[in-house]
Amino acid sequence: MNKVATNKQNTLAISPEEIRKLAISSRIDMVRRGWYKFSRNTLSMVGLGTVLLIVFLAVFAPWVAPYPAHAGPFTDFAHAGEAPSSAHLFGTDMIGRDILSRVIFALRPALIMGVVVLGLVVPLGVFLGLVAGYAHGTWPDTVIMRITDIFIAVPALVLALAIASVLEPNLTNSMIAVSVMWWPWYTRLVYSLSSSLRNEDFVRSAELMGASNFHILFREILPNFWGPIFTKMSIDMGFVILLGASLSFVGLGEQPPKPGLGTMVAEGADHLPDQWWMVVFPALAIVIVVLGFNLLGDGLHDLLSEEKG
Amino acid sequence: MRFLYFFVRRFLHSIFVLLGLSVVIYVISRIVPGDPARMAVGYQAPQWVVNNMREYMHLNDTIPVQFFYWLRSALSGDLGISLLTRRPVIDDIRQVFPATLELALYAGLIMAIGGIMLGTLSAHHKDKWVDNVVRVFAYMGIVTPAFVFGIVFTLVFGFWLNWLPTIGRISPDLTSPPVVTGLMTVDSLLAGKPLIFIDAVKHLLMPSIALAMAGLSQGARITRATMSDNLGKDYIAAERALGIPERQVLWKFLLKPSLIPTVSILGLDIAAAIGNAFLLELIFSWPGVSRYGVRAMLAKDLNAISAVVLILGLAFVVVNICVDLVVGILDPRIRLSAQRNE
What we know:
Chain A is an all-alpha fold. Chain A has 13 helices and no strands. Chain A folds into 2 domains: 1-40; 42-308, MetI-like fold (Orthogonal Bundle), CATH 1.10.3720.10. The radius of gyration of chain A is 24 Å and the shape is globular. With 342 residues, chain B is mainly α. Chain B has 14 helices and no strands. At the A-B interface, helix 6, helix 7, helix 11, helix 12 and helix 13 of A face helix 1, helix 6, helix 7, helix 11 and helix 12 of B.
C-alpha cells in the first residue's frame, strides 16, 4: 500500500519497469487481502484444511496407510471381520484387510476421477458456452444450447450408468461416462454470463478495433468469469466424486481388489448389521470428501462475490 | 390463452428433447462392441440364423435408417425383447414401473413439503439456533450420497432399533392386494385393507426419505435464501406497517413469491432422485424400474437399457413440464415473457 502512495506523487517520472512492479505488488496485495477475508471464515478454513488433508493422504498413501499391502489382493483370514481396535482403527473386512488403509488408498481413484473429469469437462463446456453466448440468437447458439438441453434432460446418474455399463466396467470408462454428463452445466453457466456481456462497451470497442473472434472470446469475455468457474469447479469436485462413488457402488468403477469408496460401501452392505464398520467408515469418508470441497467452494463463492460488490 | 401458448411451446420443446435423447440412447446402444444380431440369437446359432436376424433387425441398412426403424417401433410401444427375461421389454417395464412411481411420488412429496417447511422455519428464525440447526442439517443432506443415507437408515432404523422393515414393498406374510393402480398404498386402500396400507407405508418410509434427503435440503436452502431476501423488501415492511398480522404476512404474501426458485430447482432435484432411485432400489430390494435397469446393465441387455433410460427420460420431461406449469401459475412474469419473446 505504501509503495502505491509514494509512487503516485511522481507519476510523471514513472518507467514501464516500475509500472510492472506496481502491478505485481497490487496483485500480491489483492491476494493477501483475499486470504485475510477467506481465513476469517472458520467454515472455509475447515474446508481448505479438509481438502489439503485429503490430498496429502491420497498422494502419500503408501507411507501414511498403516498396512499399504492391504490395498491390493491381500488376505489374512486370521483377522477377518474384526471390529475397530488399536491395531485396526476402522476394523478389518471379511478377508482380513485393514479398512483404514483401504479408505486412504480409495481416496486416490476418487481424486483422480474429480481432476480428470473436470479437466475434460471445464475446457469443453466453457468453450461451447462462450461461443454460444457470443453468438447469441444465431445458429451456433441454437445448436449448442439445444444439445445441452438433451443432456440435461436425463438424470446424470442414469445415463452415466448406461454408458459405463455398455463399456467395460473400470475407472477410465466411469470417468468418460461422468464427463459426458457433466459438460452441459459449464456450457450453461458460461452461456448465461457471456450472453449478457456481449453488448458491453468493452466488447463492442474490441470488435470495432478489428479484434479477432479468438481475442474477444478468450481475452475480453472469458477473464470476467474465472470467479464463478472456479467456484463451481471446487463444488463440483465434490459432486463428481459423489457420482463416481455412486457408479462404483453398483460395481462400475475401480475394480476389485483395488479399493473404491463406493465399492467398499457396497461390499460392506452385505455384512450388515454385524460388521457395521465395513460400511460406516468408507461412507463417512465419502461424506467428508464431498463436504470438504463444498465448504471450500462456498468460501471461494463468498470471497469472489464480495469482491465484485 | 397466453397460458395455453406458453404450454404448447413448452410441450414442443419437450418433444424435441425426447427425440434428441433417443438419438443419444441409440448411439450408446451401438457403441458397444459385438454384433447385436449375434447377441440376440445366442452364440450357438448357425450363421444363417444370424443373417436372418441381421435382416430382421435392419442391421444391413445405414445407421440413420436403422435409427428410423428403431424410433418407429419405439413409438408404437415395441422396445424389443429383453435378453435377460426373454419377454418384451415394454411388458417388463409396465410391471416394474408402478413401484418406482410410488417411491418417487412419496419422495417428491417429502422433498417439496419438507423443504419448504424447513426453509420457512429457518427464514422465520433467521440467525437463531433453529436456523443454524436447519442449515447444518441441509448441508449434510446435500453432501451425503443417497445410497449412504439408505444404508445408514437400514443400519439404524432397520437393524439396531428394529423399527422399520428393510426390504421389499410389503411384508412376506401378507398377500398383496389386487393390482389396480400398481401403487401399493392406493391398491390396499381400494381393497379395504388398512393393515396392508400401514405395512406398505412402513416399507416406503426409509427408501423415500433417503431418496428425498438431497432435494429436501436443497429446497430448504433455497427457500430460506429467497425468503430472507424478500423479508427485507419494501412491500413486506409496508404490510407490517399497515398492521397485517405477521402470520398472514409470512404465509400469504411472502411464501408465494419465495417459492418460485424452490419449485424451479425441484425439477432438477427430482431428476437426481430418479437417478438415485437406482441405488436405493438395490439397497431396499425394491422391485422397480431401476433395479430392473441395473440388472439389465450388468448383463448388457441393450434393449432393456435403452428402454429404461428412455422411460426415465420421459418421466423427467413430464415432471419438468409440471414444474414449469406450477412456476407459470406462481409467477405471471414468466408466462408473459414467454409471449413477448416471439
